[in-house]
Amino acid sequence: FDSADILPAAKPQLDAIAAGIRMLPAEQKVVIEGHTDSVGAEEYNDELSQRRAQSVRRYLVATHGIEAARLEAVGFGKHQPLPGRSPLAGENRRVQFRGE
After folding, report:
1. Taken in order 89, 71, 98, 6, is the CA torsion positive or negative?
2. From CA 21, how far away is CA 30, in angstroms rounded?
3. What is residue 23's three-state secondary structure?
4. How many other CB atoms are found less than 10 A from the CB of residue 94?
5. What is the DSSP string of 24-72?
6. For the whole model, what pTM was predicted?
7. pLDDT at position 2, please?
8. What is the DSSP string of 7-22?
9. What pLDDT does 80 receive?
10. Contact between 18 and 62 (Cβ < 8 Å)
11. Which pLDDT tens digit goes with each residue over 7-34?
12. SS3 74
């Protein structure tokens, strides 16, 4: 909550995602999408979600040597809650990946 820090428990998942990105064609871009729950002001959540995506991008570049130009960090704030979940649910505080 209210953080863009990568938790130690998330690092093995990010390490696996990095391995997957490396298996993609070199020209394949990946969008890192940051999200928040609906608690808090819209402007703050937009900024927080962007920081979350950027934090993951920095980790993938620094730790795994993924080329920064392949990774685009985008924040969606509270505008895309998970289907079937309350907008207030903690599961909405997440980062997702999408090939482009």
Report:
1. negative
2. 8
3. helix
4. 16
5. S-TT--EEEEE---S-S-HHHHHHHHHHHHHHHHHHHHHHH---GGGEE
6. 0.93
7. 87
8. PGGGHHHHHHHHHHHH
9. 96
10. no
11. 999 999 999 999 999 999 999 999 999 9
12. strand
How is residue 6 written in tokens?
A: 């990568």
Would you tell me the crossing angle of helices 42-64 and 11-23 to the nearest 10 degrees?
70
Whole-angstrom distance, CA of residue 11 vs CA of residue 79: 26
Cβ(68)–Cβ(54) below 8 Å: no
By residue count, the chain amounts to 100
Chain segment 47-93, per-residue pLDDT in tens:
999 999 999 999 999 999 999 999 999 999 999 999 999 999 999 99
Tokens of 30: 């990946």
**Which letter, b or e, does each residue of 29-61 get, where b requires 16 or more Cβ atoms within 10 Å of its Cβ?**
ebebbbbbbeeeeeeebbbbbbbbbbbbbebbb
**What's the pLDDT at 49?**
97
Predicted confidence at residue 76, as pLDDT, reads: 97
